[in-house]
Design a protein that fits this description.
The complex is a heterodimer of chains A (111) and B (112). Chain A is mainly beta and 111 residues long. Chain A is 0% helix and 59% strand. Chain A starts with a strand and ends with a strand. The chains are: A mainly beta (111), B mainly beta (112).
């Protein structure tokens, strides 16, 4: 399995609070991705990074920001969590345009 | 991005081959066919991918038709641990970092 960890694995928070999810890799891959998975929608891309400090939006980026200050870490921040952001969040990594490998996921519940 | 169509569910007897079909009639020449699976509550797991030719690895075989409009994933000897949702994905490597567009997938149930 690719060396990808996500933290926390489970989180419950309240509407309006900031939340940061962390993805950590030990593979030194250039690309990192954040997806969310919801019933009836499959996985959808939120943001991705193609290098340190290089990020771009995916299809459902509103309400989310990301940062990548080191190759191994990709942070996803919900500035002010809403109930619609209750979801399972998956991080993925890949080498340049190669196969993506996924982390174990973070279950987020916004009350 | 090309769309894929898969049956929502399939059953397979343990020890038999599982053949999962996928239609991707609008696939472009530079788009790859990828297969992932997701076992309940886990992250998607990569299985196999191909462009034009048939591919085989330790997990599965991928058969792509000559016109590339459809493909079949074959698990040669299905086990109970192969019960999962299987996703067929058409991927353009140079679109948004080569993002994966997941459809609804096929829920495969392997039965004893």
């Amino acid at each position: 399995d690719a060396g990808i960890t996500q933290s926390p694995r489970h989180k419950v928070t309240e509407t309006g609070t900031p939340v940061t999810l962390r993805c950590h890799q030990t593979e030194n891959h250039r690309y990192m991705y954040w997806y969310r998975q919801d019933p009836g929608h499959g996985l959808r891309l939120i943001h991705y990074s193609y290098g340190v400090k290089d990020t771009d939006k995916g299809e459902v980026s509103d309400g989310y920001s990301v940062s990548r200050s080191k190759t191994e870490d990709f942070l996803l921040t919900l500035e002010s969590a809403t109930s619609s952001q209750t979801s399972v969040y998956f991080c993925a990594i890949s080498e340049v345009q190669e196969t993506q490998y996924f982390g174990p996921g973070t279950r987020l519940l916004v009350l | 991005d090309a769309k894929t169509t898969q049956p929502p569910s399939m059953d397979c007897a343990e020890g038999r081959a599982a053949n999962l079909p996928c239609n991707h009639s609008t696939i472009s020449g530079n788009e790859y066919v990828y297969w992932y699976r997701q076992i309940h509550s886990q992250g998607p797991q990569y299985i196999i991918h191909g462009l034009k030719n048939n591919e085989t690895n330790e997990m599965a075989s991928l058969i792509i038709t000559e016109d590339r409009k459809s493909s079949t994933l074959i698990l040669p000897h299905a086990t109970l641990r192969d019960t999962a949702v299987y996703y067929c994905i058409v991927r353009a490597l140079y679109n948004q970092g080569g993002k994966l567009i997941f459809g609804q997938g096929t829920e495969l149930s392997v039965k004893p």
